[in-house]
């Protein structure tokens, strides 16, 4: 069997997996690409088809399993509307002059007037508040 042809197909598979991952954002495909790259290296080193498949399965499968275990131990991400890594307004401070009867208020923030809603447990009172989430064009406030 022609070793050059084997390595070429493995490198093409690696490139295809990386391209698909870039299009979909599925990080697990990069782990599988590690497996196909390992198979290409095994082919360069003279391994037969069984050795190439075994190296692809061990490296790719091991990388997927390792990534799954790492991700499983991490806490779930906050929803986008309340995630300060996504929305830089989270954690910002505003001053509320008065609350409306329906639990909303108009606040001035970043040069514009916003509608705000209190999401705490106690009764809202005028004063300083922290933005905890942004829901559409409404700021959700708490102390």
TrEMBL record:
It comes from the Bacteria. Signal peptide: none annotated. This is Membrane protein implicated in regulation of membrane protease activity. GO terms for molecular function: peptidase activity. GO terms for biological process: proteolysis. Keywords: Hydrolase, Membrane, Protease, Transmembrane, Transmembrane helix. The chain crosses the membrane at residues 53-70. Residues 87-139 form the NfeD-like C-terminal domain. It holds the Pfam family NfeD.
């Amino acid at each position: 069997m022609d070793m050059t042809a084997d390595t070429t197909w493995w490198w093409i598979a690696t490139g295809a997996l990386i391209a698909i991952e870039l299009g979909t954002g599925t990080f697990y495909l990069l782990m599988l690409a590690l497996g196909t790259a390992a198979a290409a290296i095994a082919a360069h080193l003279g391994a037969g088809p069984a050795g190439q498949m075994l190296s692809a399965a061990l490296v790719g499968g091991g990388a997927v399993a390792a990534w799954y275990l790492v991700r499983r131990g991490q806490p779930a991400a906050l929803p986008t509307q309340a995630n300060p890594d996504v929305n830089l307004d989270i954690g910002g401070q505003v001053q509320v002059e008065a609350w409306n009867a329906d639990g909303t208020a108009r606040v001035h923030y970043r040069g514009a007037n916003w509608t705000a809603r209190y999401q705490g447990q106690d009764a809202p009172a005028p004063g300083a508040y922290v933005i905890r989430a942004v829901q559409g064009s409404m700021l959700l406030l708490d102390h």
